[in-house]
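Reference record
================
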Amino acid sequence: MHVLLKVFTKVIIGSIIACSVMNCAQKKVITKSPNSTNLNSINSSAIPVDPDIYKKIAFVDNSKTAAPYLSMSIDFDSIAAIRKNVEKIDRLVLQNRGEAHITVITPPEFEHLKSVLTMELLNEVALLNRIQETPFEVVCVGRGQLKEDKKTLSTYYVVVDAPELVSLRHTIATLYKTRGGLVAGFNPDEFYPHITVGFTDRDLHQSDGVVKSKVSCLIDIQLKAQ
């Protein structure tokens, strides 16, 4: 039975790869924020974003961390430049992790998935679906805040649109259910893709009541002309 499930899993992955390859010519990385109507028209109130934010970089395996997760790696220098602008605008100094990524499967989500799926398999699915080539669109800089011990904690992030990362989550959901995972254990559509820019004390998450979606947009961003 285990062999049959493994073969079926490979068939599912293989069919998705074939579909991805067929659509590859139609994919186009959008390098423009919807808040910017013309790259030649400078928005003085918008933070400039380096086009390198869209460049392909190496995949990072997060399976050995204390709280494993799956992510798409992003050019850190581009995010560091955004952080410096945010610090200047809001007159503060932000902590950062020294790297940048879009989390695709969060640590709490993996806690549900790991009953039937390993991080090694999730990495395999992500790589076969060319996660590091996935198109996405930067939207804005968002901010989430939390009052804690008479202090306001803040976290800043780039909100992004990433439909194909949602598709990857659906692929993972299919594998999860195929292998006997509970239907209510993982919702692929409950997803707010973003790139953490920095935080004052600690990063804030949904468990803190912070939803990193377009609703939290604080500052416009505009792609620099190449």
Observations:
- The first helix runs from residue 2 to 22.
- The first strand starts at residue 47 and ends at 49.
- The two ends are 54 Å apart (CA to CA).
- DSSP finds five helices and seven strands in the chain.
